Amino acid sequence: MELALSELGPTVDMLPDGETGERLNWIQKIVEQFRSHPDVELAREGDWSEYDRTPLFRVKRGHRLRPEVIDLGYARFFRESFPLFEELTAASDLGDIPFQVGIPSAFDLALFTFGPRGAFRQRRAYTEATLREIREIHAEAANRVVFQIEVPAELVFVARMPSPLQPLMARYMAGIVTKLAASAPAGSRFGVHLCLGDMNHRALMGMRDTTPVVRLANAIAKRWPDGRSLEFMHAPFAAAVEPPSTDETWYRPLERLRLAPSTRFIAGFAHEGQDLEVQREILATIEAAVGEPVDLATSCGLGRRDPEAARAAIRRTAELAGD
């Protein structure tokens, strides 16, 4: 948090705690805890070196996955970080910005734990466990928190479908995301982080153009529940280590993006591995397609970068924001 505030200053409009320590590799720690879960057993070993080399689990015969014995840790980490957030933002005269809490989609959690078939069977337990923690955090901080729903699998499922079937898959996946928000406390604040994955700083896949992003973002916005604000929609325009495309036609589908005026669009293209002038041209291309100024971010937070690369990514964002 100190690093982000020192490098980005007043351009910061919300602040996460960096998800350091055991959260360094996103949901890996959550999945690994199932090695000792009483209702689950290992089905396939994995060392997390590649997307197809992750451990997979299955529910034991005669057992069921109970949400009350799933420890996601979101509320615990929030309680550790929020007092420091309040102290640091107050000292930086940014005491009115919200604290961002990353909430992986229940579908993604189930997919990485139980595989594609198990994801559909076990998503409900993960959803209930996630909602339990959202309610705890909201009860303590209310509108001081924005929950970022992180949905790499949903976007990848849409992008991998043949083009004629992408709208149908986008509607289905949007339903998963919006049902979570609809079950959260009234007044909850949300953002959606569309993503292509960043394990070991590698994406699950690339995209031919921005069509899957537009289809899923529009489907989510159309179905967003009343009484819960959708404050931002983040879109990945780089694929982890791979920098964003310089082809103007790749961004042209953004002309069909339809978000509510209250929802900010965050273009995730800031990339320390690409020339600054090229990045400025990409920003102009994105804003021309969207039809208005956009907010800026990397494709997946700081991803799996080392400290030096993380600072470079933050500084690149600051350079682009300074324009």
Describe the structure.
- The protein has a single domain (2-322), classed as TIM Barrel.
- It is globular.
- The strands form two sheets. It has a six-stranded parallel sheet with strand order 3-4-5-6-7-8. A two-stranded antiparallel ribbon has the order 1-2.
- It has helices at 2-8, 28-32, 74-91, 106-141, 152-159, 166-183, 211-223, 248-251, 276-290, 307-322, and strands at residues 40-44, 56-59, 99-104, 145-151, 189-194, 229-236, 264-268, 295-297.
- β6, α8 and β7 (264-268) form a beta-alpha-beta unit.
- The chain is 43% helix and 14% strand.
- α1 (2-8) runs parallel beside α10 and α6 packs across α7 (211-223).
- The chain is built from ten helices and eight strands.
- It has 323 residues and is α/β, with parallel strands linked by helices.
